Amino acid sequence: MDDRDQRNNHHNRPMFALLLLLTLLIIVGGIYLGAAQVRSLLARSTVSLEETEEESQTDTDTDTEAESASNENAEGGLQENAASGQTLDVVEVVKKAMPSVVAVTNKSVQEMTTMFRESMEIESVSSGSGIIIGQNDTELLIATNYHVIQGASTLSVIFSVETDEETTADAVMKGSDEEYDLAVIAVVLEDIPDEVREAIGIAELGSSGALVIGEPAVAIGNALGYGQSVTSGIVSALNRSLEIDGVTREYIQTDAAINAGNSGGALLNAQGEVIGINSAKVASSGVEGMGYAIPIDEAKPVLSALMERETRTKPGEDERGYLGAYTQDVSTEARSLYDIPNGVYVTYVADDSPAEDAGLQQGDIICEMDGVTISSTEGFEELLEYYRAGETVSMEILRASRGDYTSRTLSVTFSEQPENSGSGPQNTQPFDSRGPFR
Length: 438
Known about the structure:
By secondary structure, this protein is of the alpha+beta class. Helix content is 28%, strand content 34%. It has helices at 3-76, 90-97, 146-149, 194-199, 296-307, 332-338, 354-358, 377-384; strands spanning 78-80, 87-89, 101-113, 119-135, 139-144, 154-159, 168-177, 182-188, 216-221, 229-244, 247-254, 266-268, 274-278, 291-295, 321-322, 325-329, 344-349, 365-369, 372-373, 392-401, 404-413, 415-416. The strands form five sheets. Strands 3-4-5-8-7-6 form a six-stranded antiparallel barrel. Strands 9-10-11-14-13-12 form a six-stranded antiparallel beta barrel.
């Protein structure tokens, strides 16, 4: 190798070293940057994984809560009512109230005339419901509608309990108020087996005055006579004014189904308290989602008075008392036109009868007898069937005088039935368009 080559090699060595150093620096830097990028990617992946796990856990918790709520609704019958903020557990309401609701059977005998003009008696059976509202030393007291027990020859109730003992018992009239469509019937405690007495309960009465539209409601009753059934809904309206049999009163409206046989049953709030007494009588055919109940606040004083009345049974024909007065209903139009209070119009008073002896006159309005409000001739005649010859009762009447009415209290003592009492009067003075002022 000559001197020129040695000098070239000598000059190339530093350049080669510099290039080698630069290469090493690039390689090390690349490795460092690559590691940092990997660390960054790993960090982001870890955060993403943690977020995903958190979201997954949140979704799982939400699904679990929803599933739990769904299961609770399915198993417990829970319904959250947004309008009232109350939770309705239908199952619990039924458990609490069912033992206090009974089925009522009314057996009556109706006299009919055949096409050959022969008279025959036909037994009729109807069904309704009732609510156990109290008891005294000897009787269990049950509230129901007047129209449920109207015209009954015999009454019986079926208790809503599961037992091997007999759950049916005979019932008798305690008291009734036709104007309010309410009645109280009684079952002798000794006629109820001990096991049944332990299973039944007395209903807890709530307040209808505190109700709000939209709050939940449950109806229990002997629908169609098939036995107790339960329907639920809400309070659809309050103070709904309706005219029934010429009398206008205010009712609770509900969309809980109320059908024939539900009359006299319980309308309950979310606490299982009775807030109304159902009445299928005010239901209209072809209308759905509109049931009605007598507000319990209105019913309480009437029921309390009926519970205090003497329990009566109908005497036989040979023991039944005779009054000797004949009446007819006053139409709603006539009441409005002449401002006549509720009652029945006397069209005829028989000579030498207890009615005449008491001072009852043709044209009088009988509005009360023995503390019972008189609203119709049918109800008045049915009431008379419970009194025996020789009994004395008070009778409240209104007598027309100079364009006004004067209230009087008469004392009537029933006599034995005369032989021709069934034929009725031949000449009566009906309540016609001339009104009561003659």
